[in-house]
Amino acid sequence: MHIAVLNGPNLNLLGEREPDVYGRATLREVETATRERARALGVECSWTQTNHEGELVEAIQGLRGRADGAVINAAAFTHTSLAVRDALLAVRVPFVEVHLSNIFAREPERRHSLLADLAVGVVTGFGAESYRLGLEGLVKHLASRDGR
Length: 148
Ligand code: DQA
What we know:
Helix content: 25-40%
Structural class: alpha/beta
Number of strands: 5
Number of domains: 1
CATH class: Alpha Beta
Strand order of the largest sheet: 2-1-3-4-5
Distance between the termini: 11 Å
Largest sheet: 5 strands, parallel
Strand content: 15-25%
Shape: globular
CATH superfamily: Dehydroquinase, class II
Bound molecules: 1,3,4-trihydroxy-5-OXO-cyclohexanecarboxylic acid
Radius of gyration: 14 Å
């Protein structure tokens, strides 16, 4: 099973960016922990971060035929990007939406996701653990769907 983890804008600054909101773990540390969990689950994992909407769209388009599922933190594009939504609608790869912060406890404009209704599920508010929880939930979902 291959799971792609896709990260949107400003997540490259984790660790130094608003640590009271996003915690002190760097994106590299989140990646290492997620890859370790994937290995323990016997799952292949790829990792991408981009600050550019078009690159995120292309990464989603590239999932078709290459990934069984995706863990996606689209960051601010979660709340703004019909292009990201359309890409997810086009490829129809099962994904879990994750956020470090609890987007429902933040400013009104962050409380709405343009992606969530397309997701298998959403994990929001557990800091770096959101990625692990999202990965575990997705792998279980795919395994039970495939009768494994
Ligand atoms: C975020 C929440 C978004 O609202 C914000 O734009 C981010 C990070 C999170 O992981 O908590 O960049 O997706």
